[in-house]
Amino acid sequence: MMRGGGNREMRRMMDKMGLDMNELSNVQEVIIKTDKKEIIITKPAVTEMKAKDNSIFTVTADSYEERELEVPIYSEEDIQLVSQQAGVDEEKAKNALEEAKGDLARAILLLTTG
C-alpha cells in the first residue's frame, strides 16, 4: 500500500518497468470516433505513458459531448458491386446508393436507365 510519497513510488515502479510518463500540456480537445458516434472531450487532462514499442494515453475530463454519426446503410462491397454492374466509377455508385437508400437493385437501375 502506498502512503505519503506514493507518486514518487509510482514513478520509480514505472521507471523499473521501462515506462516514461508525461503530462501533455495545452490539450484543447480529444475526439474519439467509432463507427456510430463521436465523443468530444474539451480541455481534458492527458497523460502519455511511453513503453518501448507503444504509448498509452489517459484522458481525464469533467464533461464530454456525444454525437451520433450517420451510418451508411451500405458497405464497400455494395459500392463495388453497383460500380461493376452499372459500369461506373465507385463515386457514382456511392451517390446512387445514397439516393436509393441502400437498395442495390434500385441503385443499379438508376445508373443504367435514362
UniProtKB/TrEMBL annotation:
<keyword id="KW-0694">RNA-binding</keyword>
<feature type="domain" description="NAC-A/B">
    <location>
        <begin position="4"/>
        <end position="72"/>
    </location>
</feature>
<dbReference type="GO" id="GO:0015031">
    <property type="term" value="P:protein transport"/>
</dbReference>
<dbReference type="InterPro" id="IPR005231">
    <property type="entry name" value="NAC_arc"/>
</dbReference>
<dbReference type="GO" id="GO:0003723">
    <property type="term" value="F:RNA binding"/>
</dbReference>
<comment type="subunit">
    <text>Homodimer. Interacts with the ribosome. Binds ribosomal RNA.</text>
</comment>
<protein>
    <recommendedName>
        <fullName>Nascent polypeptide-associated complex protein</fullName>
    </recommendedName>
</protein>
<dbReference type="InterPro" id="IPR009060">
    <property type="entry name" value="UBA-like_sf"/>
</dbReference>
<dbReference type="Pfam" id="PF19026">
    <property type="entry name" value="UBA_HYPK"/>
</dbReference>
<keyword id="KW-0653">Protein transport</keyword>
<dbReference type="InterPro" id="IPR002715">
    <property type="entry name" value="Nas_poly-pep-assoc_cplx_dom"/>
</dbReference>
<comment type="function">
    <text>Contacts the emerging nascent chain on the ribosome.</text>
</comment>
<dbReference type="InterPro" id="IPR044034">
    <property type="entry name" value="NAC-like_UBA"/>
</dbReference>
<dbReference type="InterPro" id="IPR038187">
    <property type="entry name" value="NAC_A/B_dom_sf"/>
</dbReference>
<keyword id="KW-0813">Transport</keyword>
<dbReference type="Pfam" id="PF01849">
    <property type="entry name" value="NAC"/>
</dbReference>
<comment type="similarity">
    <text>Belongs to the NAC-alpha family.</text>
</comment>
